[in-house]
Specification:
six-stranded mixed sheet, single chain, Immunoglobulin-like, seven-stranded parallel sheet, 13 helices, 1044 residues, alpha+beta, 13% helix
């Protein structure tokens, strides 16, 4: 016998031999279908007499479109038998009466693609959700980036939907199920071979949430200037007399729909019929069908505080047909929704909790919330009865409905978030321009009650502060001011309680009246700022309450049932410390977390460290100590993003009396806070840098308030595309950046003012050049040499070389001869080993070894001082210092130092004897006097008086007197120095003169000899060194060199 699934808005049904059945699974095992008749009018939308049975049209698989090549996931084989609905019951989001249903397998117009980000084939979810990846890749405040993401999301989802429709045709699964009451179920996806359907899930309504109180004088709120997005099964009847001129149907080809029109009226009906007046009767609506909701939300949701044409609130009174295995599970639909809201920080969706309290019964009604409604960053709405007694709001009368789905999530997170009136709601329908219905019940009705009420808070905040509130702030305000129902504190039936928008409005006005009292606080945690504190004085009367809420990045989608892995990504913590500094008050936590028992789901909230919720609340019902309390927001773990903004709402602070609101909003409300101005000043477009180089990004930013006065820039952030590079909070704004790879980079700066308005600079393009090719060494010559010897290195790509080393010792003297040759001088301290050349990004080492040799007694003149013995001298004698750069002692027996004037040819001989230690010095004292300090003990001495201005000094391996003006070319000449205007010298020019106060030194502390007197010598303080007691040079040159 063939079975055909029909999902009837909260009741899963099958056709079996012409008898109408309803499936109610009682546990997580298979349960046979049960005979069922709906008699409770509250379970119908609307309540209608039962018919004789559904009418099922035959499948028309020939109508199914072909599968697009880009579809996500494989489509299963059509040979599988459609599973018994008792094994996996679909979910609805509105309670409906039994009624005749028409099942169609054709689709009059191919859906434009909806976006549950699951694979068509079912089974374990793929580890990377393409929609989440798209949302994480772009800055939604940049219109071009947003347009790209929306286009790609639409393409992905159209391809996926093509595959779904083809599979439906192969399996004979109905695509659309129309019921006689106007409600529909539309095939949206498959889980394996099982179809997944999307299903549609007021005067007393306004009283229940307090909306009527702030519609009236003195508040006078009506939703003016607020646009609400309505996504539903079809289009709103925009010609209805309650909605004329304020509804734009964004999907023109989509048929009008009763459910969508009823939702729209609850939000925005004018009140031609006073019983049908909406929560925000002058708000405007954008109406969409649900086929491509994620892409449309991405395109239309508010990304900034001043995006006036965008949608700050949306209503989603629909869900999916769900089975027992889906109960409480954070699936890819919830993950996608969280990623979407994270990318649009001023956009807050309101989503129906579902009506599965009596159909998903494996946990006694708990965990019957599923799919999108389990997302962290939305407001999930449950349904209660009218909170009205004798025409006046009475929160305690808001008893739980018989159908509203309950939480928690598998990880223990609190759902629903809030509740609103959803039973017997009177509102508009799509039949005619003046049609209404008052028998609709469901979380589908409670959700627009909540969203429309929130629109009034949006209006008040905008007219008070000149900009939109962040989604996290609006959510914190609604939760903080809700009236507690059910167990004390939050629970899994009522969430945080019944919406009370009057209390929320009063809190906003109180903050405006006394801004020094911290009732509404917004801030961010970063890697550098892991904790913030807010202090206040208790008013001495009220309970103290602090509510923390943040929009959290999307968590990992779960595929297993009952996964206890927290869906939270950034675990912020809230606590209040009492005036004594020792008493600490912690937030609510649910006993189910950690216990994981069914009984714990109904237990009252406790307090402790909350690890699963992205809304936390500390409540001190009866403070017992006056004084200053401290609220701390902190985070222990690392951030996965650059910053985590949060909203904090506090009551119980001193001076918290509620101010009297203005009689009505001003005809000219406070203008929206204008966006700041920002420009990227450096680098300029077209700049090129080498890979490995650091670049400084600089920007100018300025701000004006709505009155034209100078505003405050709170931060400037820098980006490469959508990649965050850094932040600066103080002018001038700059960050340092070192690119990780070569290529072209598009850089921008984004400024945020103290009110949250954002602006992005014009982009600048920078090119990062690829690193030069790695160098290579093919050979060098000579193969050996002493310290100071010149070595020619041959190889390739040597132009970018930045250093040369001999066995790890850097050469201080080297130059690039050509791209294939480098000339380097063997440095002091080098030993035998390999030669290495380095660039900024690479290096090369020779295969051959360079041998550092020790020349026989290679001694040279390292220092000359000619100012000794004068009254102004540092030392008592002139001197000449010798240096042995070798690694062995050098014997000087038989050697001599010979001296003459700058143009002389008669040489004075000073005999030398003894030895110089390896790498040591030898001091020769010359003429002197009684002034100044004595020299260290000289190794040799003579009476020659060195001239200050000019002279010649020769070191020879013989004591035979020189003949002539120059010893250059003699075989026994070890070193020769001509200084001043001397007529003989090594190299191109004579060395500089010692002057009266200074000696002349060879470079490298007297240890370098390149056979060029001018290049080798420079001035420094006299510092004579002998073979026993060398001194440390002071290294201070005072006189400028004359360029040659």
């Amino acid at each position: 016998m063939k079975k055909t699934i029909i999902t009837c808005l909260g009741v899963s049904s099958i056709v079996l031999s012409g008898v109408f059945y309803a499936n109610q699974a009682s546990d997580r095992t298979n349960t046979p279908p049960l005979d069922h008749q709906t008699t409770d009018a509250s379970a119908g939308i609307p309540a209608t007499p039962p018919s004789s049975g559904p009418v099922v049209s035959p499948p028309q698989s020939s109508m199914a479109p072909t599968m697009a090549s880009q579809a996500l996931g494989a489509v299963g084989s059509p040979s599988a038998t459609l599973p018994d609905p008792s094994q996996d019951s679909p979910q609805g989001s509105d309670n409906a009466s039994d009624g005749t249903a028409t099942v169609q397998n054709t689709n009059p117009a191919r859906p434009r693609g909806t976006t549950p980000s699951s694979a068509v084939s079912g089974g374990p979810a793929t580890p990377t959700n393409p929609i989440v990846l798209l949302l994480q890749s772009a800055d939604m405040s940049n219109p071009e980036e947003r347009e790209r993401v929306v286009a790609e999301m639409t393409q992905v989802e159209e391809s996926r939907m093509d595959a779904v429709l083809e599979k439906a045709g192969q399996l004979g699964v109905p695509v659309r199920i129309d019921e006689t009451d106007g409600k529909v179920s539309v095939l949206h996806d498959f889980r394996g071979e099982h179809p997944l359907y999307r299903v549609t899930n007021n005067r007393n309504a306004a009283i229940s949430t307090g909306s009527n109180l702030i519609q009236a004088t003195p508040y006078g709120l009506d939703g003016s200037g607020v646009k609400v997005g309505v996504w539903d099964a079809g289009s709103v009847r925009n010609t209805h007399r309650e909605l004329t001129g304020r509804v734009t149907n964004k999907n023109a080809a989509t048929p009008l729909d009763d459910h969508a029109t009823h939702v729209a009226g609850t939000i925005a009906a004018t009140g031609v019929d006073a019983s049908a007046k909406g929560m925000a009767p002058k708000s405007t609506l954008d109406s969409f069908d649900w086929d491509n909701d994620y892409a449309e939300m991405t395109a239309n949701g508010a990304a900034t505080a001043t995006a006036l044409a965008s949608v700050p609130l949306s209503n989603h009174s629909y869900g999916y047909g769900a089975g027992t295995a889906d109960m409480g599970r954070y699936e890819r639909e919830a993950q996608t929704t969280d990623a979407l809201v994270w990318s649009l920080p001023y956009f807050l969706p309101f989503w129906a909790a579902g009506n599965e309290q009596n159909s998903l019964t494996a946990q006694g009604g708990f965990q019957s919330i599923t799919f999108n409604s389990l997302a962290k960053n939305i407001v999930t709405i449950g349904a209660v009865n009218d909170a009205v007694v004798a025409g006046v709001r009475s929160a305690s009368a808001g008893s739980m409905s018989t159908f509203s789905s309950w939480g928690p999530c598998d990880d223990g997170r609190i759902k629903p978030d809030l509740v609103a009136n959803g039973v017997g709601i009177y509102s508009t329908t799509a039949g005619t321009d003046s049609s209404y219905n008052g028998s609709y019940s469901g979380t589908s009705m409670a959700t627009p009650n909540a969203a429309g009420s929130a629109a009034l808070i949006q209006q008040l905040y905008a007219t008070t502060y000149g900009q939109r509130p962040r989604a996290s702030l609006l959510k914190a305000l609604l939760i903080h001011t809700a009236d507690d129902l059910g167990n004390p504190g939050p629970d899994y039936k009522f969430g945080w309680g019944l919406i009370n928008v009057k209390a929320a409005a009063d809190l906003i006005l109180a903050q405006k009246a006394t801004p020094a009292v911290p009732r509404i606080v917004e801030n961010s945690l970063t890697a550098a700022l892991k904790s913030t504190t807010t202090t206040f004085d208790w008013d001495g009367l009220s309970p103290i309450r602090a509510t923390l809420s943040w929009t959290d990045p999307a968590g990992a989608a779960q595929t297993a049932a009952d996964s206890r892995t927290p869906n939270l990504v950034h675990d912020l913590d809230l606590k209040i410390t009492g005036p004594d500094g020792a008493t600490v008050y912690l937030p609510f936590v649910m006993p189910f977390v950690g216990a994981w028992t069914s009984a714990a789901m109904s237990a009252a909230a406790a307090t402790g460290k909350n690890r699963v919720d992205n809304t936390e609340q500390v409540h001190i019902a009866s403070p017992n100590r006056a004084g200053t309390y401290t609220v701390t927001v902190s985070m222990d773990a690392a951030l996965s993003t650059n910053a985590q903004p949060y909203a904090l709402v506090i009551t119980g602070a001193a001076a918290s009396t509620t101010p009297t609101p203005s009689p009505t909003p001003s005809p000219t409300p406070v203008p929206f806070n204008p966006a700041p101005t920002v420009s990227l000043t450096s680098p300029t477009s077209g700049t090129s840098i080498s890979l490995g180089a650091q670049l400084t990004l600089s920007a100018n930013a300025a701000d004006r308030t709505s009155s034209g006065a100078a505003g405050i820039i709170s931060r400037v952030e820098f980006f490469s595309g959508s990649t965050w590079l850094g932040i600066d909070t103080t002018a001038p704004y700059s960050v340092a950046w070192k690119p990780a790879a070569s290529g072209n980079y598009i850089l921008t700066a984004r400024a945020t003012d103290s009110e949250g308005a954002v602006a992005t600079s014009t982009s600048t393009t920078v090119t990062v050049l690829a690193p030069p090719p790695a160098p290579s060494i093919s050979s060098f010559s000579p193969a050996s040499g002493a310290v100071g010897a010149s070595v020619l290195i041959n190889g390739g790509n040597l132009s970018a070389v930045t250093g040369v080393q001999f066995n790890g010792v850097s050469a201080s003297v080297w130059r690039t001869v050509s791209p294939t040759q480098i000339s380097a001088t063997v440095p002091l301290g080098a030993t035998t080993g390999r030669v290495r050349v380095s660039t900024a990004t690479a290096s090369a080492t020779s295969s051959a070894t360079f041998t550092v040799t020790t020349p026989p007694a290679s001694v040279f003149i390292s220092q000359i001082y000619a100012g000794g013995g004068r009254w102004w001298s540092d030392y008592s004698h002139d001197y000449v210092e010798l240096h042995n750069p070798g690694t062995a002692p050098a014997r000087l027996d038989g050697w001599s130092l010979q001296l003459t004037g700058g143009s002389g040819s008669r040489w004075t001989v000073v005999p030398l004897k003894g030895s110089i230690p390896a790498r040591g010095y030898y001091l020769v004292a010359l003429a002197g006097g009684d002034y100044a300090y004595d020299l260290p003990t000289a190794n040799a001495s003579g009476a020659y008086d060195l001239a200050v201005k000019q002279g010649k000094v020769a070191l020879l391996r013989t004591s035979a007197p020189l003949v002539g003006a120059s010893p250059l070319g003699l075989a026994n000449l070890s070193d020769f120095v001509g200084y001043g205007p001397a007529n003989a010298y090594e190299g191109s020019y004579p060395a500089i003169s010692p002057e009266r106060y200074y000696a002349i030194f060879r470079a490298n502390e007297g240890a370098t000899d390149t056979n060029d007197n001018y290049a080798d010598f420079d001035w420094n303080y006299a510092a004579p060194r002998n073979s026993a007691t060398p001194v440390t040079l002071r290294k201070k040159q005072l006189l400028p060199r004359v360029s040659r």
